[in-house]
Each structure stands twice: as C-alpha cells, then as structure tokens.
Amino acid sequence: MTKTQLFTIIALCVYAVAMALIGCFSYGKSKTLDGFLIGGRNIGAWVTAFAYGTTYFSAVVFVGYAGQHGWNIGVGSIWIGIGNAVLGCLLSWLLFANRTRKMTKKLSAKTMPEYFEKRYDSKGMKIFASIVIFIFLVPYSAAVYKGLGSLFSAVFPGVQTWVWMLIIACLTAVYLVAGGYVATAYTDLIQGIVMIVGVVCLIFAVMNHENVGGIEGFLENLRAFESLPNDPNPTTGAQLTNIFGGSSFKFLCVNIMLTSFGTWGLPQMIGKFYAVKDTAAIKRGTIISTAFCLIIGCGAYLIGSTSRLVLGGQLPEGGIDSVIPAVLMEVLGGGTLGMILLAVIMILLLSASMSTLEAVVLTSASAVAVDLIPSIRKKSIKPETQMVLTRVLCLVFVACSFIFATQNIPIIVSLMSFSWGVVSGCFIGPYIWGLFSKKITKIGAYAGMIAGLLTVGGATLYITLTSDFAAAAAKSPEMGVCAMAVSLVVVPVVSAITKKKDAKRVEEIFECYKEA
Questions:
Q1: Within this chain, do residues 400 and 413 fall inside the same structural domain, yes or no?
Q2: How many whole angstroms separate alpha carbon 126 and alpha carbon 108?
Q3: Which residues pair with 226 in a beta bridge?
Q4: Which string of DSSP letters, residue by residue, matches 194-207?
Q5: How far apart are CA 94 and CA 76, in angstroms?
Q6: Do 110 and 160 lie in a common domain?
Q7: Is 201 found in the same domain as 340?
Q8: Residue pLDDT, tens place only, 213-223
Q9: What DSSP line would sit under 327-368, residue for residue?
C-alpha cells in the first residue's frame, strides 16, 4: 500500500465515522414525517445555505463539466461558475426562498408534488409530478457515482470502480435513513467546509505547478499553448484565453442557462426553502450560499482551465472524464504534503457526490411514498406508515442508483443526459407562477408541465428520426433551456384564456404573504 492510499483510507474512515455519528444524532429529530422530510421547518441559515450549495455541486461538476469545458473552452468556462452563483443561487434565493417558505407552510406541503396538488387543487398533477421525478431523478443519481469512480480508481488502480460506488451508497444510506433531512443538512455543512478547504488548496497547488507558472504566468503560458499533432480536440491559445469563450460562446451561454436557471425548477433544490426557519435566516443564507457557490463553481472551472498546461496538452488515456483525475495525480502525486492534500481532495469529491445523491434520493423517495402511493390508493395511509415507507424507499433508491451506475444500462445513461432539463422544464413554470400570480389556473399549470415535457420529447423524436439518438443526446442542453422557456410562457398564456374556478381559495392561500 502506498502512502497516498494510506492517507486516503485514513481520511475516508474519519469521514465515515463523522457521517454515521451525525445520522445517529439526527435520528431523534426525524421521527415524524415533517421532521424527516423538511427538518420541522426549523433549519438555520448556515446549514440551509450549505445544503443548497453542496446539492448544487457534485463530483460530476468537478470531474465532468469542469474537466470537459476547462479543457475545450479554457478560462471562458469560469463564466459557468459565475452564472451558477449569480443566477442559479443568488437570484433564486432573492426571488423564491421567502415566498416558497411561506406558501408551502400555509399549504402544509412537504414536497414539490404536494405543493402542486394543494396550490392548484389537483391530485392528478401531484401524480404526474411524482412520476416525472421518479423516472428522471433516480437515473440522474447514477451519474453521481460515475463522476467519482474514475478518480478513486486512479488512486487505487487495483480496486474495481464498483467497490467505491458501493462505499458511497452505504455511507449515504446510513445517515440518510437514520436522520432524514436533518442529517443530510448537517452533513452538508461539514461537506461544504471540506469542499471549500479542498478547492482552495487545489487552486493553490495547481497554480504553483511548473507548467502553469503561478497567477502571473498562467494566462501568458496558456496564450502561448499549441495543441499536439495527435490532439483529438485541437485548439489554440487564443481560444483558451478568450474571456467569452471564443468560438464556444453559444455553447457557453446554453450551458450557463441550463445549469443556472435549471435550479429554479428542480425539487431537490427548491426543497431547501421549505425547511429554512424564518426570513432572517433567508437573508443570511442568501449571502452565505452565493459566496459558497462562487468559491466552488469558479474554483472548479479555473482548475479545469489549467488542465492543458498541467498535462502538457496530452489528453489522458481515459478521455475527457479523466482530465481532472490526471491533473490531481500530476499536481499532488508526490511528497507527503501533496499526498495529504490529495486525500483531502478525495473527501471533497466524495462530499460533493454524497450531498447531491442524498438530496436526489430523498426527493425521489418522498415523491413515491408521500405523493404517488397515497394518491392511487383508495384508503389513506397513516403518517407512521408513510414514515417507514419513506425510509425503506430511500434504501431502495440508493440501491437502484448504484445498480444503474454499475450496469451501464443504455436507456438509463440516455435518461441522465435529459433529466435536468426535463424535470426543470416540467416544473419551473407552474412552480414560479404559482408563487407570484393569483391568476394562474389549474389548466394553465397542467399545460406548462406537459409543454415542458413535450418540448424535450418532441425535439428528441425529431432529431432521432432525422439523424440518430446520439445527436439528440448532444442537443439535450438546448432542449432543456427551451423546455424551461416554453413552460414559463405557456402557463400564463393558457391561464389567461381559461376560467379560474377557485378565486376564493387562492385568495386565502396568498394571505400567507401578509403573515409574519
């Protein structure tokens, strides 16, 4: 066993014990369904802010997006991190946090499907939303494992990738099933601190690599970069240093919009606002969460933009997904301090993955246990039974996501590429307009959901028939952005031409904004 492996195993053991203790500590606060799903609506600013940020950024961002876009686009990719912090975090908190907290409390809604049911008086909408969440979020969680497996395999080449995936699944299951949202929120706080320390250390280490030349030499060296003759993705120094992405400007804008505005309709992100305890906590949380996202988002893409220099322009054997792992091994592979930092970075990526996984699994489990099953049964389900069912389904969904990730099932892999755009495209219109306008009708909300789904589905079918499915998957970011825009437009337009039947009930709901 090498020193790097030893340090990493020690760090993993300490981390695992800490997560297990938090799960045990949180068990007493999650004995009710309300406590298990939203922490009794009593979560403070720091915990909520870090929960939002760590759910936003998983290992997929570091290993996948930052590696790919940093390698191909260069410093312009940092705009994705800025967009995520300003649009996906700051603007979301300013516009929706307080309204979401007040309205969901008034409606006694604990999940996104339950919010739709009670806001629009529609059990069918609740069932539809639950099915969308189940179909597209469970496969999405499998991508979390994928983003982390390649890095652990680089440090432990003799260990199969599925072993690390199993470790992630077991750790997540232990504290999620034991402590529910409270456990995930407090582990997110610890995970967020680890992520900040890890990113800052990694930026320092990468910038001081001899090929990068420090902060002063970085842009100069990158501007002088020339692709190797056998580079499958050749580029120029001018492209890599273009602040607006050069020829990739359009691609950059689409990805900023998808990954930023997409959070406005994702139930695992919006759910954080259900749990925050008061307006004062929201004001503090807005600042904390935005600062966190700026550090993590911009840091990740900055590291990615140095990859061609660190690796000498040679794409790793594993392709684009191996860029960041290769950078880490190059920068931190030697010396005791480097090994310790590498162990910290491994925990950083593990934390990023687990925080996203736990949020997605809790959202999916609640969609089935709290929303779907009670809606299709004729008899009501006791809260105690729902509590047990939710815990069991958390285990089931963790297991399913693990199986999907290890089997490389084609349809699951395909669903991953569409999941973010489909879910947000379906929910963003009915969710946002439902918070702000009394004029939105049930038919208008339904139309927005269906229009978002059909936008992606129709475009996918057309491109597949005229070209192939791979071409459709490559266009999934554009489809997602279009679906969100269509949903936001369709909801008020259809509402304007349909009759509103429940004006008195809606007036009573909107009274929540007048309450303290």
A1: no
A2: 14
A3: 236
A4: HHHHHHHHHHHHHH
A5: 26
A6: yes
A7: yes
A8: 888 889 898 88
A9: HHHHHHSSSHHHHHHHHHHHHHHHHHHHHHHHHHHHHHHHII
